[in-house]
Automatic annotation (TrEMBL):
Name under which the protein is recorded: Nicotinamide phosphoribosyltransferase
Nicotinate/nicotinamide phosphoribosyltransferase domain boundaries: 59-269
TM helices/strands, residue ranges: none
Domain of life: Eukaryota
MF (Gene Ontology): glycosyltransferase activity
Listed SUPFAM superfamilies: Nicotinate/Quinolinate PRTase C-terminal domain-like
The keyword Glycosyltransferase belongs to this UniProt entry's keyword annotation: yes
């Protein structure tokens, strides 16, 4: 930046301070992109064959970051940067931002109905399975996500999703109607927890589990798993590597990232 007016010698610094703010969306987009590359690599290595929308990587890293940033402006700008790489976002500010400044006629990102801990625990321990059934009943078609670690995630996957509610889950795909349950663990070591959950689900739904061309197990299309805790550019490849070694395809997984995606970075992150 060059100022040619000696009367306004201070102008370059003022404008530079504003201009240099682009480090934030650039860093978010690069961080997001790095995770996309990791996911794409894992999908390739475990036999994925479908790459067009909505398959492939486009919905594999969901933006949970609105609550994890310092302002609504940060959510809007950072969330928009993430949408350069992925199509999944719960950050409404980013959708409004891209619609306004890019004059889009429709949203740049998409989401699905999802429960949170309060909507499950309010039913009590004995009512957890009923709370889960309520989610499936309230959203009988399309995709729905349900947090499953309110009390015991392994019991929930084996006894509830894999037994008492199994027929409802399988029934989400009938004729021309497509539906999918996305099971969400939200605590414990991400790699170990996801591995154990996939073992349980692959056992409970074994009649519909398939093996990819690379010999990895893939859950039936009506059920998947989303890891939304402890997800960042370092943990994603570790989780996927662990699952690959255990014989599970990367396409079993979706990830959600919040503060680590939009807030756990600064101007020195990429120097």
């Amino acid at each position: 930046m060059v100022n040619t007016d000696p009367k306004c010698f201070w102008l370059t610094n003022f404008l530079e301070t504003l201009l240099v703010q682009v480090w934030y969306p650039m860093t978010v987009a690069t961080n997001s992109r790095y995770q996309k590359i990791s996911i794409h690599k894992a999908l390739e290595e475990t036999g994925n064959t479908e790459w067009g929308i909505p398959s492939g990587t486009c919905f594999k890293l969901h933006d949970f970051g609105f609550r994890g940033v310092s302002s609504v402006e940060s959510a809007a700008v950072g969330g928009a940067a993430h949408l350069v790489n992925f199509l999944g976002s719960d950050t409404v500010a980013a959708l409004l931002c891209t619609k306004k400044y890019y004059h889009a006629k429709r949203a740049a990102g998409f989401s699905i109905p999802a429960s949170e801990h309060s909507t499950i625990t309010s039913w009590g321990v004995d009512g957890e399975v009923d709370a889960m059934k309520n989610m499936l009943t309230s959203y009988p078609t399309g995709l729905v996500a349900c947090v499953s670690d309110s009390f015991d995630v392994f019991k929930a996957c084996k006894d509830y999703w894999g037994d008492k509610l199994k027929d409802m889950i399988k029934g989400r795909i009938t004729g021309d109607s497509f539906g999918r349950l996305v099971v969400r663990p939200d605590s414990g070591d991400p790699a170990d927890t996801c591995k154990e959950i996939l073992k349980i689900l692959c056992t409970q739904f074994k009649e519909d589990v398939v093996t990819t061309k690379t010999g990895h197990k893939l859950l039936p299309p009506y059920i998947r798993v989303i890891q939304g805790d402890g997800v960042d550019y370092e943990s994603v490849p570790k989780i996927l590597k662990s699952l690959k070694s255990a014989g599970f395809a990367a396409d079993n997984m979706v990830f959600g990232s919040g503060g680590a995606l939009l807030q756990k970075l600064n101007r020195d992150t990429f120097k």
